[in-house]
Write a structure and sequence with these properties.
Layout (H helix, E strand, L loop, with lengths): L1 E6 L10 H16 L5 E4 L13 H9 L6 E4 L2 E2 L5 H14 L4 E6 L4 H7 L6 H18 L1 E2 L12 E2 L12 E4 L6 H7 L2 E4 L5 H18 L9 E8 L3 H23 L16 H9 L1 H10 L2 E3 L1 H15 L3 E5 L7 H19 L3
Parallel strand pairs: 1-2, 1-12, 2-3, 3-5, 4-5, 5-8, 8-9, 9-10, 10-11, 10-12
Antiparallel strand pairs: 6-7
InterPro entries: Bact_Lucif_Oxidored, Luciferase-like_dom, Luciferase-like_sf
Protein name: LLM class flavin-dependent oxidoreductase
C-alpha cells in the first residue's frame, strides 16, 4: 500500500485570501514530502473557491522541484478543456522533470459552469474526451502526433519534444463517474480512481464491471488495482475527531453538491451524462443523508480508528494507494498539519504492508 497527499486548495466562503490558502497548501505539501508520504496529487478546477487548482501540471512541477523521490499524479486533468498538442507536450515535460515518477490521471468533468467558462459545449464532452485521449496517449507512446481524420482536432503531424522517454502504460488512471465510462477507461488501459461519493456496494459493483471490460480488452494483462480517494481527519480524542470530521468533511461535501449542482443539475438532459440520473435522484431525495453517508465512508477518528476504517476500505476495493485529502472545509492549517502528523506517525506505518 502506498499513501499520497491530495492537495485541495479550497477556500470555503472566501474566508481567507486565496494567497494565504495557496501558501498554506504549499506548506503542507512540504510537510508530507518530509514525513513519509509516497506521492502528491492535484485536481483541476476553475473559477470558484471550491478548489482553486486551475493548472495541476504547474503545481506538480513545483512539487518535483522540492524532492528527488516523491511521485506525483493528476486526479484528474480534465482533458476536454485542453488542446491535445499542449497536453502531450506539457505531460512529456513534467515526466522529464519527475524522472518518470508521474502518473497521468484523466477525466471528463461534470460541472456545466466550468464547461461554459472554457467555452466547450458540455454535450460534446464524451466525443472530445475520446478523441483527445487517443491523440495524447498515442503521442506519449510514439513521440509523435499523426495526421488522421478527426471531428474536433484535425492536426498536422508533429513530433513531441522533449520526446517522451518512458511508456505511460501502467501509469494512466481515470475517474469514471458513471457506469457508461467504465468500458472507455478499460479500452484506454487506465486504472480506476475511486471517489467515495457512492456506497461501497456501488463502488464494488462498478469496479467489477470495469474488471470485466478489462478482461475482454486486455486478456493477457491483469486489471490494475484502483486508487482510492479519502478525506481524513485524525485526532487523539475520538469525540473531537468526530465533531471536527463532521464539520470539515460535511462543509467540503456540501461545497461539492453546490459546485456541481448535484441533485438539481439537469445532467440527465445532457448528452453523455445520462448515467448520472439515478445517482442524482437519490441526492435530491435526501441531500443531508447523502452528506452524512459521504462522511461515514471516509477515514476520521483516532489513529486506531483510521487504521480500522482504511483496512475496511482496502478490503472493499483492493486499492493499491490511498490518496488523502487533509485540508478542506475551512479547516485551520495547524489542525490539518496535526492531523497529517498523526497519520504519518501512526497510520502509514501500520498499513504499509497491506
Amino acid at each position: 500500500m502506498k499513501f499520497g497527499y491530495a492537495a485541495t486548495f479550497q477556500n470555503c466562503f472566501k474566508a481567507r485570501s486565496d494567497y494565504d490558502v495557496w501558501r498554506d497548501e504549499l506548506r503542507l505539501t512540504d510537510f508530507v514530502i518530509d514525513n513519509g508520504f509516497d506521492s502528491v496529487w492535484a485536481t483541476e478546477h476553475h473559477f470558484t473557491d471550491y478548489e482553486m487548482s486551475p493548472n495541476p501540471l504547474q503545481y506538480l512541477s513545483w512539487v518535483v522541484g522540492r524532492s528527488s523521490s516523491i511521485e506525483i499524479g493528476t486526479m484528474v486533468l480534465v482533458i476536454p478543456w485542453h488542446d491535445p498538442m499542449r497536453i502531450a507536450e506539457e505531460v512529456a515535460v513534467l515526466d522529464h522533470l519527475a524522472d518518470g515518477r508521474f502518473t497521468f490521471g484523466i477525466g471528463r468533468g461534470v460541472c456545466d459552469f466550468e464547461y461554459q467558462g472554457m467555452r466547450i459545449p458540455m454535450e460534446e464532452s464524451r466525443e472530445r474526451f475520446d478523441e483527445i485521449a487517443d491523440i495524447v496517449l498515442e503521442a506519449l507512446e510514439t513521440g509523435r502526433i499523426e495526421e488522421k481524420p478527426r471531428k474536433f482536432y484535425p492536426m498536422a503531424p508533429r513530433d513531441i519534444r522533449p520526446e517522451p522517454f518512458k511508456s505511460f502504460k501502467g501509469r494512466l488512471v481515470a475517474a469514471a463517474g458513471s457506469t457508461p465510462s467504465l468500458p472507455i477507461m478499460a479500452r484506454l488501459g487506465a486504472g480506476l480512481l475511486l471517489v467515495p461519493s457512492k456506497s461501497w456496494d456501488q463502488i464494488e459493483e462498478e469496479t467489477g464491471i470495469y474488471r470485466g471490460h478489462w478482461a475482454e480488452m486486455h486478456p493477457d494483462t491483469p486489471a490494475p488495482r484502483p486508487l482510492l480517494d479519502q478525506f481524513i481527519f485524525v485526532h487523539e480524542d475520538a469525540e473531537v475527531a468526530k465533531q471536527k470530521a463532521h464539520q470539515y468533511l460535511g462543509t467540503y461535501y456540501r461545497e461539492v453538491l453546490k459546485h456541481y449542482k448535484f441533485g438539481a443539475s439537469g445532467l440527465e438532459k445532457v448528452k453523455g451524462y445520462e448515467g448520472y440520473t439515478q445517482w442524482e435522484t437519490k441526492i435530491a431525495a435526501d441531500p443531508d443523508g447523502h452528506v452524512n453517508d459521504f462522511i461515514e465512508r471516509n477515514a476520521w477518528g483516532t489513529p486506531d480508528q483510521v487504521i480500522e476504517k482504511l483496512t475496511h476500505a482496502h478490503q472493499r476495493t483492493n486499492c493499491s494507494q490511498i490518496l488523502a485529502h487533509a485540508f478542506m472545509g475551512g479547516m485551520p492549517t495547524d489542525e490539518a498539519e496535526h492531523s497529517l502528523s498523526l497519520f504519518a506517525k501512526h497510520v502509514i506505518p501500520a498499513l504499509k504492508d497491506l
